[in-house]
Amino acid sequence: MAKRAYPLAKVYGLLEPGPVVLVTTARKGQANIMTMSWHTMMEFEPPLVGCVISGRNASFDTLRATRECVINIPTLELSKQVVGIGNCSGRTVDKFAQYRLTPVTAVAVKPPLIAECYASLECRVADTRLVNRYNFFILEVVKAWVDTAIRQPQTLHHRGNGVFAVAGETVRRRSAAK
């Protein structure tokens, strides 16, 4: 075995949970976008998504107060916007204007969808019991949208320190019927 010790501060890059997403929130007529990498599916029906949002982010306070957001899934074409959005604060920047993204009115929640993203999931906070201790929100997806013209979306996957993997080859293996 050729394994060696690995720094604990870098473990997150080994366990990336899924595509980088852009989370939109809205409060008092002001929409914001944040880049988020730390989320996980928790249940299928209804779809529940767990996510960590730093208490230092403007989106944290808005999500806590309004209890709704939209998870937007960008593709490789938006990689510069994804990184830029992650490197500035919604307290001082109108990220829709700065990054030339188009807000689209949602059906079930107040925050907008992002037109340029491959998919958008309208969400409501379902459980806040882990927010105070871990900044962990449990969201219920109440409406989902996908651009059916995009057959093989190339999503971004954060590996840490500005390094991203791009979803590539799709492999199909039949699972046992249940």
TrEMBL record:
Keywords of this entry: Flavoprotein
Keyword Cell wall biogenesis/degradation: no
Domain Flavin reductase like: 13-165
GO terms for MF: FMN binding; oxidoreductase activity, acting on the CH-NH group of donors, NAD or NADP as acceptor
Obligatory cofactor(s): FMN
Keyword check for Flavoprotein: yes
UniProt cross-references to InterPro entries, sorted A to Z: Flavin_Rdtase-like_dom, Flavoredoxin, Split_barrel_FMN-bd
Source species, domain of life: Bacteria
Sequence similarity: Belongs to the flavoredoxin family.
Protein name in UniProt: Flavin reductase
Record organism: Thiobacillus denitrificans
